[in-house]
């Protein structure tokens, strides 16, 4: 088993990777993914904003060579209720069967997905694609938003507003 950690995501020979049951894991900053960045609140980037990944080659778990992929990310986005920043945790796991053509036995109800056998599979694109699919369209703070709570606490008395208008 090969354990490799680095900042750059690699291209792999996926069939070979699976047959040798290799493992590749690491962590990259969120801003490494350009397509994803367009959907994020980049002003909210901080040391939390990372994408951790682990790719495990499996020779015969699904009767075929396959890859197991885990993604653990914290993405800076804007809350669609209060428009303040928040970090959206995203944890994903996938199994991909590797073959030249999509196996007939694999249908949409299966737990496994399919990737084409490739000597130069781009892990960055794969991980970014999965993050783009998983990204919430309208992220919200889990508990009531801080800003909204403040507004409720500082509620202005409508009569005092009227009074101040009359003075003018
Ligand atoms: Zn909010």
Strand order within the widest beta sheet: 1-3-4-5-6-7
Low-confidence stretches: 1-7
Percent strand: 25-35%
In N-to-C order, the SSE pattern is: EEHEHEEEEEHHH
Distance between the termini: 79 Å
Main β-sheet description: 6 strands, mixed
Name the hetero compounds present. Answer: zinc ion
What global shape is seen?
Answer: elongated
Structural class: alpha/beta
Roughly what percent helix? 10-25%
Describe what you observe in this structure:
There is one protein chain. The protein is of the alpha/beta class and 168 residues long. It has one domain. 24% of the residues lie in helices and 33% in strands. It is built from five helices and eight strands, in the order E-E-H-E-H-E-E-E-E-E-H-H-H. A six-stranded mixed sheet has the order 1-3-4-5-6-7. Strands 2-8 form a two-stranded antiparallel ribbon. The longest helix has 12 residues, at 123-134. It is elongated. The model is unreliable at 1-7 (pLDDT under 50). The chain binds zinc ion. Residues 79, 81-82, 84, 140-141, 145 line the site of zinc ion (ZN).
Summarize the helices and strands and which ones pair or pack.
Layout: E1 3-4, E2 11-12, H1 14-19, E3 23-29, H2 34-37, E4 50-58, E5 66-78, E6 85-99, E7 112-116, E8 121-122, H3 123-134, H4 146-153, H5 158-167
Parallel strand pairs: 1-3, 6-7
Antiparallel strand pairs: 2-8, 3-4, 4-5, 5-6
Bound molecules: zinc ion (ZN).
């Amino acid at each position: 088993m090969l354990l490799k950690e680095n900042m750059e995501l690699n291209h792999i020979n996926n069939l070979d990777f699976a047959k040798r049951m290799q493992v590749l894991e690491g962590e990259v900053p969120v801003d490494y993914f350009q397509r994803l960045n367009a959907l994020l609140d980049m002003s909210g980037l901080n040391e939390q904003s990372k994408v951790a990944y682990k790719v495990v080659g499996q020779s015969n778990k699904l009767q075929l060579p396959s890859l197991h992929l885990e993604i653990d990310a914290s993405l800076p986005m804007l809350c669609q209720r209060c428009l303040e920043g928040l970090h959206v945790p995203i944890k994903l796991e996938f199994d991909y069967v590797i073959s030249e053509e999509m196996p007939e036995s694999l249908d949409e109800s299966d737990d496994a997905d399919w990737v084409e056998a490739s000597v130069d599979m781009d892990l960055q694109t794969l991980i970014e694609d999965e993050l783009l699919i998983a990204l919430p369209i309208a992220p919200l703070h889990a508990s009531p938003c801080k800003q909204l709570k403040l507004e409720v606490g500082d509620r202005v008395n409508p009569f005092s507003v009227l009074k101040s208008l009359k003075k003018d």
